[in-house]
Fold this sequence. Notes:
The chain is mostly helical. The protein has 9 helices and 4 strands. Mean pLDDT is 80; it is low at 1-14, 115-120 and 248-253. This is Protein ARV. One of its GO terms (biological process) is sterol metabolic process.
Amino acid sequence: xxxxxxxxxxxxxxxxxxxxxxxxxxxxxxxxxxxxxxxxxxxxxxxxxxxxxxxxxxxxxxxxxxxxxxxxxxxxxxxxxxxxxxxxxxxxxxxxxxxxxxxxxxxxxxxxxxxxxxxxxxxxxxxxxxxxxxxxxxxxxxxxxxxxxxxxxxxxxxxxxxxxxxxxxxxxxxxxxxxxxxxxxxxxxxxxxxxxxxxxxxxxxxxxxxxxxxxxxxxxxxxxxxxxxxxxxxxxxxxxxxxxxxxxxxxxxx
Length: 254
């Protein structure tokens, strides 16, 4: 005998995938008749193909992500990574680790552009520099996450719970993929203005991802992301200035 399913379970099963056009839940995106022979399903709400990106190469999806097309973000967040699924702990931890690592690279690049004290070769100075970068990463991102959560809750008037907050933060982490270009800056020399360009792309990408996840107005999502990035930038600059001044005084005393 087939067990009965509750209304919430049926609703959750329907919303496992989403239409990239209207954002409504759909049971399945395609039907596979044989290997390499599939038929894309149409959305019952908008009557369009639910997700045409299924048949696209990854480079096409990446180009549309760079162009900030909301359909591409819908495909990435809900149909590829399936943020509606309950088990996203592993993805969240991996994304957080990569995000913090890339953020540490960014802060190191800023410190090097300001002629930090790495040339002395002292072990104590190296440990102090690593501790300073770690402190900046943790404090800056704490401010960033706080502004995102508070701005979404009060400015955009969206009710939040633990699952909803996790979904929003995961979308923010994944949409910060432009930070991967920082790896190239660690290997080759680039002008410091490239850091500013990367930050602008990350900000706009975060705003699109927040709009896709929350289904709120673009202007409000952009304002929340701008405030979060501005607060983080202010914290980075202030903390670097404060700790750099402390290092100078310490070196002068010794």
